[in-house]
Each structure stands twice: as C-alpha cells, then as structure tokens.
Amino acid sequence: MQASRTGPSDGAASFPDILRDAGLYALVALGLCIPIVSFRTELSQNSALDLVPRWGLVAGLCAAVFVVRVLQRLVLARRDARKALTPSAHQATEAVHGEPNAGQRVSRLAVPVFVGFALGLPLIAVLATGGLSQSRYWIDLGILILTYVMLGWGLNIVVGLAGLLDLGYVAFYAVGAYAYALLSTTFGLSFWVCLPLAGLFAALWGMLLGFPVLRLRGDYLAIVTLAFGEIIRLVLINWVDLTGGAAGISSIPRATFFGIPFTAGDDGFAARFGLTFDSMHRNVFLYYLILALALLTNAVTLRLRRLPIGRAWEALREDEIACRSLGINTTTTKLTAFALGAMFGGFAGSFFAVRQGFISPESFNFLESAIILAIVVLGGMGSQVGVAVAAIAMVGGPEMLRNLGFLKAIFGEGFDPSEYRLLLFGLAMVAMMVWRPRGLISVRVPSVALKERRAIAGSLVREGHG
Amino acid sequence: MSVAGINVLVEETRARQAAARAPLLSVRGVSAYYGSVAALREVDLEVAEGEIVTLIGANGAGKSTLMMTIFGSPRARSGSITFAGRDITRLQTHEIARLNIAQSPEGRRVFPRMSVYENLQMGATLHAGRYFAEDLERVCTLFPRLKERLNQRAGTMSGGEQQMLAIARALMSRPKLLLLDEPSLGLAPLVVKQIFGAIRDLNTRDGMTIFLVEQNAYHALKLAHRGYVLVNGRITLSGPSRALLDDPSIKAAYLEGGHPVPDAAGQPAGA
User: Fold this and answer.
1) Which of A121, A361, B223, B252 has the smallest CB count inside 10 Å?
2) Where is the ABC transporter domain (chain B) (predicted)?
3) Is A308–B117 a contact, with Cβ atoms under 8 angstroms apart?
4) Chain segment A208-235, per-residue pLDDT in tens
5) Pairing mode, if any, of strands B52-57 and B209-214?
6) What pTM was computed for the model?
7) Which residues of B lie closer than 8 Å to A, measured between beta carbons?
8) Could you give the ipTM of this predicted complex?
C-alpha cells in the first residue's frame, strides 16, 4: 500500500512551487504584453499618433495566464496523484490512507482558488476592461453562471445525493420567482422578507410534487416530474388574474442595498457611500448576492451530507430496500430531499426576479430544466466542485463562442460563429459522454469527518495489514 | 448411548425448551400474494429467543418472500406476525426495523458507492451512533476482513466481503433478531465456512437469535437448532435440525445433489 504511493517529489508538486511556476508564466506574459498589447496608437485631433496605455488589459491578461497555469498544474497534479494511487489489478484493496493523498490535498486547494476567483471577479473584470461600465458584460456573465451554479447545487440535492431524477426542477425556480414578484408588487414586501418566503413556497411545492411520486423511481419519476414542470408553466400562462398570463409580471421592485436603493438621488447608494453614481453598482451587488446564495447552498449541502439526513439521502440513492430495512423512513427522506432542493430553486428564482425586474412563463420552459440537469449530470452526480465546473462550461462556454469574431478572418465575412454555438456545444457534450461518461468529477468523497476516519484508519487498518 | 445420540437428545431438549418459552417471532397462518399469485400459503413458523432457526427450500419456494413478508413488504394478506409480543403484520418496513429486527437481505444490498465505514454507520442509524465505536469494534472482531477495508468502497469488495458487510451492517443496529437471507449465495466454500462460523459464534457467544433462510440445506441444518422446509409456499416439514438431516425425503430432495429429485431428474445434463 505504502509502496504504491509516490513521494511528493514526483507528480504532486507543493502549492508554493505551483504558485512560483505560475508567477513565472505571468511574468513572461507581461514581457510579451508590453511590446504587443500595452499601448494602442490612435490618431489624435492634430493627426499625430497618440499612445494610449492599456495597463488594465495587460494586468487582466497576466492574471488570466496566472490563473490558468495554476489550474492546469492543479489538474495535472491531481491526475498524477490519482494515477499513482490507482491500485494494480493484483491489489484488491483501494488505497486506505491515514493521511489525505495528494489528489485530496490538491482538491482542497482548488476550492479556495475557485472561491477566491469568484470573490475577485468584479475587481478583475474592472481592471481588465478599464472601467466599471465596460465590465458590465463580464459581471453579468458571472451572475448568469452563478445562478446556474446555485440551481445546479440545489438540484444536486435531489438528483445527485438522493438519486431522484427530477426533470421539472425549473418549476421551483418559477415558484420562487413568482412568489417574489407577487409578494413584492402586491404587498410591497422587501426582497429580504420575500426571499425566505419564496424558499418556503418552493419547498411546499417540492413536497406537493414529492407526495404523489413517492413510489416512483427512475424513468417513471422522470416523466412525472417533467409533467409537473409543464403543469406549473401552463398554470402560470393561464391563470391570468394572478400571474398576468403570458405577459408576465413587470416592474418588480429592483434590488436595494439592504434598504438603500441604487439610484442617482440623494438617498441612493452612491450618495450615501460617497461614490459617483454608476448603474453598475447594482450589478456588482447582485453578483455578490448570488455568490452568497450559491455559497449558502453549498455550505448547507456539505453540512447535511455529514448529518444523518444527508447520509440517508445517499443510502437512498444506493439502495432503497436496504435503506428501509435499516429503519430509515424513506418517505420523509425523499420529501426532505425534494423540499430542500426546491427551496434553493426558489431562492434562485426570487434572485432571478429581482435581477430581471420582469418575469414571464417563457423563462421557465423545459430547456431550463434540461440545462440544470445537464449541469448536475456533467459535473458528476453528487460532486459540488464538478457541478460548479460544469455550470461554468455549460453557461460560460456558449457565451465564449460569441467572441470568436476572429474566425471571420479565416472563413470570410459571412461567417457568424455564434450560429455554430449550439453545434460546438453538442459536440462537446458528445465528447464528454465518450471520455468522461460518469461526469467531470465522478469520485465520491466519503462524508465521514477526516479526523474520525483517520483515527479508525490509523488504529485498525495498520493493525490489519501488519 | 453414542455421542451422536446424545447430541440428538441435547438438541431435542433445547428445541423443547425453546418451544416452551414464548417465541420471539411467530408467524401464524400467513399467506402472501404477488398480484393474484400465491407466494406463501398458511405458513406457520416460530423462532424462540437464543435459537438459530433455518428455513430451507428450493428456488422459488417462497423463502425470500417469507423473509420480506416478516419485514412488511409484501404485506401478509392473511394471518399474523408477532415479534416480542407485538403484532407487526400491518407495520411498515422501517417501523419493523425500529423494533430491533435486522436483516441481511437477499443479494446483500450493501451501499456500493459508500465506504465500508459509512455502510456500518448507516447500520447504526437507529441508535444515532450512540454505541457506534463499541459496535464497530465488535463487528471488526467478528469479521477481521472488514477491519482492513473500512475506507474501501463497498461495491469494490468481493462477494464474500460484501456478505460479511451486510451481516455486520445488520448487527450495528443491535438487533434482538437477525434475519439472514441466503448468506452463502454465490460464495466459495471456504468463505461460506467462515461466514457460517461467524453466525455460530454470534449465537453461542452473544446469544443472538437468528433466522436463516438458505438453499444450502446441509450447511444450514448443520448450523441451526431447528429447521423448516418450504415447498411451493407451504411448510411441509419442521423439526430439530438433526432429525431433518436424517430424514430420507430431505436427504433425497436437498442433500444429495443439492436439488429436489424431480428437478434433478428433469434437468438436462450440464444445465
């Protein structure tokens, strides 16, 4: 067992090494950028050439090189570590480790890197594009991706952990959005009051869906949940008195900074904090709001996984009959999974409503459910990091394809890369299913607290191996 | 009197004593159906405290159905099942499990993607981990192989190890009655011996009451105090194991060749 593990020198480099290496790359990038990117020539009014410095862009590029290199090294180290740990055919036992292996160490570092990047994104975007209003595209993209990360994490409770295939998750997203829209427009309640209410409503609907499908599994469950999603959408379209029908609900109160509106007036956010007014303040606030909501979803899920209810979900996914014979009430277990998953969908929904200021049933069609489910499945069912990566790839990827304007130089003016977005996207999906059929991160990390596990591994395992 | 004769006497006495006490589990006139097909007809069966009772029978005789019916799924359509003086016929599976009946189900049904340790934790669900460390030590002594594999994913273990895990997981709930469904299924003879040895230890050392459903009639009867024979959903024979082992009809049907005579005769060679 010990012999099969590689030393720290080969394969898994230490984190400072990786940082130094990435720093070197960034330095090279800087060197290359100075002559090529850092100045742009512009004709000034007296037809002389002016040099316009673009240091923000240079900083952005270097930062990007740095981050990509760190990620690349982390991924490589992880792969090497896993290779080194894969037991040979003769070795029946998996690696039973007293200490976390290199792969686990790296993944523990990958998470702070991810979160750090997410926290710093608005700043990076502002620096890279050279202004708050120019960074709008990137921050909006960040909001979009984080919304799907949150939805993915919410659905992950139902599909990834409890193993209940839900094709109608968008219904809860819709319930949350309409709950906020209706409560705020009719009763004038603020976002922070509506948010928990919307979550509660969605959880209630989750239970409502849960009851009739308790006895169903697999394909049959999928069909019923699909129908449920459609029913909600059709009700939203046809119950014109309440929901406004296909026209939707408009002029939903916009997000405020805990009561301080993002307006140009004297009592607005900018004036109170002594800033010059910029409509982007609201977007940055929304970005951090959805980031906080997503991280909350993640924290709750990770916590629950260690509690009896979370373990019951996973056991339910593995084997329902065995679950029941161990005295687990599968009814309540399923209902809590549906309710909690739906609650986070509801949170995301009310965020969607407060961000858009306008909602209509159009936004909650089956395609949304399919995308969210694809994120969970692509991420590797049950893996939190996998879901986040998949959301970035699924939502951010097609957006990136919009920016392939340079291809026009190759294929001629008539070529519009954005028309090929879905084609490329489909190809990527097929490739995924060929090479990583169980999702990006298919390894399940045991939920048992490390310390406890180490104690057991230390005292019992070594004894057994002699 | 020969040693074997004394053994018979001892076992018969034991069986009589057991019958005299109120049984821990009693199944009275239970019939169960799959749709309109009868799987169990008027089954009567008793398990007293401290006993190993085995139920033997051919494929499709209804052994596993009886096991599952005791556990509430499928429900008995008529008759009654009582455990420790309480009627459990109408209870749900998880409610029955909470009365301290544990089961190692047919086909083991360990949680494949969870580690051995987590599987054992799931077994201890009923006590919310109160006796976990102590019980873990106990099952690891019973099955030292599990001790070596606590961090391994259960699905990657061999069949024998999974069977050990299934029994260990059932024991983690500190049951008063342990139901075992074909623990020897698909296992090498040496592993079967190990597992049956562990079952015997459980009974003699901890006084665990065990209800064992088996196709491997010889081993099961060797291990158990009493036995029942199930044919087409009906109990046809019952009595002390030794008597059953010597019974000529049992010998012909289950022990020599391991299959009921009509089946063995009707099967083509090599099937």
Assistant:
1) B252
2) 25-257
3) no
4) 988 888 888 888 999 999 999 999 999 9
5) parallel
6) 0.76
7) 71, 73, 92-94, 97-98, 102-103, 105, 109-115, 117-118, 121-123, 125-126, 128, 136, 140, 144, 147-153, 156, 158, 169, 173
8) 0.82
